[in-house]
Amino acid sequence: MVKKLLVIFFLTFLFSQTTIAQSDDIRDKEILEAAETVIHDVMASPNPFSVSTRIRFFADEEIELEFFVKDLLGNTIFVQKLKSKKGANTITFYRDDLAPGIYIYSIKTENKIISKRIVIK
């Protein structure tokens, strides 16, 4: 009888731990999904461009971010720290002395980096 009670207790304990672990996993997934949706719909226009382009994105809240541009070798050629507003945002990027070619621009928040390509003609 004692053996059966121990087995029942052990199984109950084991399944309750699994349920707790699953609920923690669900909470972690919800936190990650929330972090992913802070910045979205990132797009450069015009692209390709000659003089300047506007990087447009939407932010679900005010957030500090970093905008940077890299060449295809990974060298950072431009960095700007910004604070977004809730809703539509625009960053204007000027070509200056950059050679024609393909570059990668990124918007970096505390939890996420969104990177896309721009082309200078």
TrEMBL record:
Keyword terms of this UniProt record: Signal
Pfam families from the UniProt entry: Por_Secre_tail
Source organism superkingdom: Bacteria
The keyword Signal belongs to this UniProt entry's keyword annotation: yes
Domain Secretion system C-terminal sorting: 46-120
Residues in the signal sequence: 1-21
KW Signal (keyword) present: yes
Protein name: T9SS type A sorting domain-containing protein
Source organism per UniProt: Namhaeicola litoreus
Upper lineage: Bacteria, Pseudomonadati, Bacteroidota, Flavobacteriia, Flavobacteriales
